[in-house]
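Escalated from tier 1: zinc ion holo job.
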Amino acid sequence: MSNALELPQEHRIPGGIAIIKLGQHEKPPTVTFNNTRVKTLQSEQDQWLAVVGIPLTQSPGEANIQVNDVKHSFSVSDFAYKEQRLTVSKKHVQLSDKNLQRVRKESKLIRNAFQQHSATQPHSTTQLHPTTQQQAITQTFQRFDWPVKGPMSSPFGLKRFFNDKPRKPHSGLDIAAPTGTPIVAPAAGKVVLTGDFFFNGNSVFVDHGAGLVTMYCHLDSIQVEQGETLERGQPLGTVGATGRVTGPHLHWSVSLNNARVNPKLLLKQDTNP
Ligand code: ZN
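Tier 2 regenerated the structure:
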């Protein structure tokens, strides 16, 4: 196959990625994990691979994917993410009924955006399948560029406690940058949702195909519209401090088969230039 296949870095932990060899299949195998479709692709050796996002809520131990309805097990290791303990006033923790209703509505929209599994990714290439000589849509995989320049201010997976009560772990990574700094699409994709959300502020969701979705939060301005196709490197908005934040930064989430995974596993470069 001539297309570049830049697989993500594998790390079989909660919040990580498992790359599972599926052997040879005449037709693209259907793979699910937790009842969600999983991204599959073909390696150069004509092997099919499943690229499985492991949610932060996954218990360490045996996990199972279904490959054409046949169970395939793999093992998830434990990982000690860093902890952060904060003391916050009650009014920051408790939501009014009105805000609670708003948050519930928005959670549904966000869930729908992450649950996308579009059949083909933007700019996927059509080519002859080398063994069957049939036309097949090839799911390529290209690693991400950093969406914004700046230091990481909060890592992925951070375990947060407010007044000693566990909150949801940090399901993205934060990059600090001044308000107005351009944010670019780290790979080609399609804008599937934009809006102003209670916690996340101005946000953009980009579908990169086959269950790979990215989310950009706390934007000062949104420069794209729902339905728009983006090229790699195309500006989508600017860094801001909208929503529940203390200062300007980009919260960036990467989702694979509806599991938020460490964005670093999909980046071309480990450090932000
Ligand atoms: Zn964040």
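The two ends are 31 Å apart (CA to CA).
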